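Reopening this one. Same input as before:
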Amino acid sequence: MNREVFSQIPQVEKLLQAEAVQQLLIQYPRCLVVESVRELLDSIRLLPKPKIEKVDFSLESLGSAVRGLVSEKAQTSLRPLINATGVILHTNFGRAPLSAQAQKAMLEIASGYSNLEFDPASNTRKNRHSHVEPLLRSLTNAEAALVVNNNAAAVVLVLNTFARKKEVVVSRGQLVEIGGSFRLPEIMKVSQAKLVEVGTTNITNLGDYEQAVSAKTALLLHVHTSNFKMVGFTQEVLLSDLVKLAQARGLLTMSDLGSGVMVDLKRSGFDHEITPQKAVSAGVDIITFSGDKLLGGPQAGIIVGKKEYIRQLEKNPLSRALRVDKLRLACLEATLRLYLDQDNACKKIPVLEMLLRPLEEIDKQARDLMSQIRAVVNDGLSLSLVDGFSQSGGGALPAEDIPTKLVALHCPRMSPEKIAQKLRGNEPPILARIAKGQVLFDPRTLRDSEFKVIVQAIKNIF
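Same output, byte for byte:
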């Protein structure tokens, strides 16, 4: 590097004396400002010669750059975004949005002390699961219930409790990967259970299970393949038949349902999803499912089943390591209470409301969004209403294309990738789809209050 150019880079202390940086020291912690100053100066030193020669080394210019860095660092890392993709349960976006009732319950419990493990009436300690267990029993008809921090944890806890160093029989067609490269065989290995695969990828019959059972077998595991669907020449064993076989051989049955849907979606034209209620009525001993998928609540692993087995799970030391905190319990309780009236749940729980929202209402939203955009940008921008499909996402209803209406945006002077990039750079970030050279906004996953943010962002871009 040219010594003359290098000598223009100010020392940290000198840049800290700049007026703009002094103002930052008043507003932000000193460590944050100093870190930003060092980061800026280090980045300048690493620039190639042609670029460093173009740097404005005035304290005013450098101070402005420091201000940008500090502002970026001061933002919370976890913050809201706007989902215009039409994927309702987007794992990367935090899955299920919470109902107003769940949000209110969490805020009330978070803001002070609570009766998490205390009974004021008797002045004694109580089990934290008592806040949700009666609701889960009532809604699923199970004898008992337990909640841990996610469904993978629930599966690990069950297998570790009842099948540690023993065999668990599973159909090959149900050896799913649940996302993030976490696979069922690996989860079973962590729980110290031994996997016994039966059948083929597409065909498993009751005889396959019968032949696999041995003196070392602990339970028969059914896994609902909620993140994919096989079609064509396929066959799987009914839960009720699996239960009969297990009972005849003195074994346990476990069903991992995944999505946790509590309402019969078949009435609304969707593929059949096994509900916890159906699994309980089939006689399954232990059932696990997620709280933040089609149930529409917080991340949680919910375990329901026969009382004697749930109580054994509670005694496993892992249950304490995997237990849920007061905020999730408050949120889950509020969500479950909405299911006491299923029609009300379908209106109040955002996941169900979005999933079941009529196409004519989506059409109205799309036209409203399109007219709002046209009101602020009417030159060089093509807008149209097109037919499309939303997705459930989150490993639920994998084969379902949900009809929707999309607002399609096209600009000849800017690529759709560039537009999408600028939308992601908005505050809050806006996530849309790209297809056929257009940026697509799906109102199914949008609230009407988010329209003005999208409109302002598009106005800023163009």
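So the earlier flakiness isn't reproducible anymore. For the record, The mean pLDDT is 91.
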